[in-house]
Amino acid sequence: MKESKLVKSLIATIAVIAFSVPAIASADQLQGRSEKVAYSDLNVEKEAGAQTLYRRLQLAAKRVCGVESIKNAGGIREVSRQQHCFKDTMDKAVAKIDNATLTEIHEG
Questions:
Q1: Three-class SS of residue 34?
Q2: Which of 2, 22, 72, 89: disulfide with 61, CB 3.0–4.6 Å?
Q3: CA 104, CA 108: separation in Å to the nearest integer?
Q4: CB 87 within 8 A of CB 38
Q5: 42-95: per-residue pLDDT in tens?
């Protein structure tokens, strides 16, 4: 039950973050971008489970924020926006989950 609340909170956090990136991105670029990150199959109190969750969060944040290379992004300005979005998304998602092991990995 508690993990279900955490998953819902994480989804809401990622959705809010995706819509609050800097004004460089237009509204139509961000519309509808959110990602569910399931982890009810993991024991996040253990290092291995927290590492797996962290990788899942990274992949979801990359997809939501559109993290790409400079070559594919169209310029440094867009790459900067993507990187800012990614960092902010990860910071907020890890804080929202509020798990010591996951936080330690993130701050690593």
A1: coil
A2: 89
A3: 6
A4: no
A5: 999 999 999 999 999 999 998 888 876 656 767 788 888 888 889 999 999 999
